[in-house]
């Protein structure tokens, strides 16, 4: 089995971290994989909305029997995005031979809350590198009696920065270490903005803090929560998205108003919470637990009939040049193009 993952990763971001970890796992198992969507392979792995409808049907020319496995990140609307991402994701999902949801919440948000994904499939949580994110290893000399770690790579307000700032202002005796991107953070002496960090640096900061905090809303499967648990950090989380199903006994829910009491609850049993966090990461999110489940889905897809029949794939791949204008939004430029695109969508949907 050869797998294509046509995604160029970046230093920060949960989706890219997942792809890097998956590629490392495939290499360690001697499983062939490529980033070239024009190469020959057996499985095309579609991660959320990173691969477009046009790219898929164009790839069918060289790989008419390829199986498409779609990893769903969540509904873009759920993150506050108002662009066309969910429409694009919906169209891609209609071509997929198998669908994987990152959490129970992810399945709910994309099939019930927002009907984006029509096909059902298994829930497989994300994996975390428990060798990198671990309680043992280099630490940083961070100031403060109680040190809280907060991580976000997006300035989307739903990532919880406004709530974080309110908590920091109300608790000057607690030091907050902010990793990632933040817009106009207040100048508070207990608010330490560390900026974008590499993974090794982030692991050092996490293990140097006492507790991990997140006020993020509607997350499908936040990797930073898994990294915190692997680092042995209790998680104070907003009761939203997949956080409750991921954390369970490794932390407690929190609001701006309940922060003080919930933090004291965790600090009173810091050793117990830390042990449970690390054990939960190893038992449920270790790459050796997660990635074999992905490979099982790939194998099942290869043994099953194609969702889009071969004859229809051939026709669609031959007309791929007409699908590219759809992806670029040319259908909004002229009435004639809008009519053509409408006809094509009816044909290909």
Question: Any overview of this molecule?
Answer:
This protein is of the alpha/beta class. The protein has helices at residues 14-28, 53-59, 85-93, 104-113, 161-170, 199-208, 223-230, 243-247, 259-268, 270-285, 287-303, 310-318, 320-328, 335-348, and strands at 2-4, 32-34, 43-47, 67-72, 98-101, 147-152, 175-180, 191-195, 211-214, 235-237, 251-253.
* Total strand segments: 11
Number of helices: 14
Tell me the strand percentage band: 5-15%
Please write the string of helix (H) and strand (E) elements: EHEEHEHEHEHEEHEHEHEHHHHHH
Uncertain ranges: none
* Main β-sheet, spatial strand arrangement: 8-7-6-9-10-11
How would you classify the helix and strand content by structural class?
alpha/beta
The main sheet comes to: 6 strands, parallel
Instruction: Name the average pLDDT.
Output: 90
Note the gap between the termini. Answer: 29 Å
Write down the Rg. Answer: 22 Å
Shape: elongated
Helix content: 40-55%
Give a nutshell description of this structure.
Helices cover 43% and strands 14% of the residues. It is an alpha/beta fold.
Question: Could you outline the blueprint of secondary structure elements for this entry?
Answer:
Elements: E1 2-4, H1 14-28, E2 32-34, E3 43-47, H2 53-59, E4 67-72, H3 85-93, E5 98-101, H4 104-113, E6 147-152, H5 161-170, E7 175-180, E8 191-195, H6 199-208, E9 211-214, H7 223-230, E10 235-237, H8 243-247, E11 251-253, H9 259-268, H10 270-285, H11 287-303, H12 310-318, H13 320-328, H14 335-348
Parallel strand pairs: 1-2, 1-3, 3-4, 4-5, 6-7, 6-9, 7-8, 9-10, 10-11
Helix pairs in contact: 2-13, 7-10
């Amino acid at each position: 089995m050869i797998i294509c993952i046509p995604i160029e990763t970046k230093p920060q971001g949960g989706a890219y971290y997942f792809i890097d970890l998956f590629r490392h796992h495939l290499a360690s198992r001697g499983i062939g994989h490529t980033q070239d969507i024009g190469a020959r392979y057996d499985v095309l792995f579609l991660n959320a909305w990173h691969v477009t409808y046009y790219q898929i049907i164009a790839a069918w020319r060289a790989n008419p029997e390829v199986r498409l496995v779609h990893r769903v990140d969540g509904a873009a609307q759920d993150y506050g995005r108002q662009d066309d991402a969910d429409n694009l994701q919906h169209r891609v999902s209609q071509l997929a031979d198998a669908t994987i949801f990152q959490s129970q919440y992810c399945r709910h948000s994309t099939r019930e809350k927002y009907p984006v994904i029509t096909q059902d499939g298994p829930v497989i949580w994300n994996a975390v590198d428990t060798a990198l994110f671990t309680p043992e290893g280099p630490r940083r000399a961070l100031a403060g009696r109680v040190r809280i770690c907060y991580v976000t790579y997006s300035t989307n307000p739903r990532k919880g920065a406004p709530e974080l700032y309110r908590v920091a202002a109300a608790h000057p005796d607690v030091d907050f270490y902010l990793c990632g991107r933040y817009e106009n953070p207040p100048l508070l002496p207990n608010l330490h903005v560390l900026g974008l960090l590499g993974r090794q640096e982030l692991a050092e900061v996490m293990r140097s803090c006492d507790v991990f905090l997140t006020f993020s809303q509607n997350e499908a499967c936040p990797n930073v929560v898994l990294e915190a648990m692997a680092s042995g950090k209790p998680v104070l989380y907003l009761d939203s998205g997949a956080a409750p199903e991921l954390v369970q006994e490794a932390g407690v829910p929190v609001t701006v108003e309940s922060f003080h009491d919930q933090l004291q609850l965790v600090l009173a049993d810091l050793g117990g919470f830390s042990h449970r966090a690390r054990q939960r990461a190893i038992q449920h999110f270790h790459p050796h637990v997660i990635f074999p489940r992905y490979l099982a889905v790939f194998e099942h897809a290869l043994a099953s009939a194609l969702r889009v029949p071969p004859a229809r794939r051939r026709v669609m791949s031959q007309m791929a040049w007409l699908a590219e204008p759809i992806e670029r939004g040319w259908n909004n430029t002229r009435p004639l193009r809008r009519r053509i695109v409408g006809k094509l969508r009816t044909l290909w949907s």
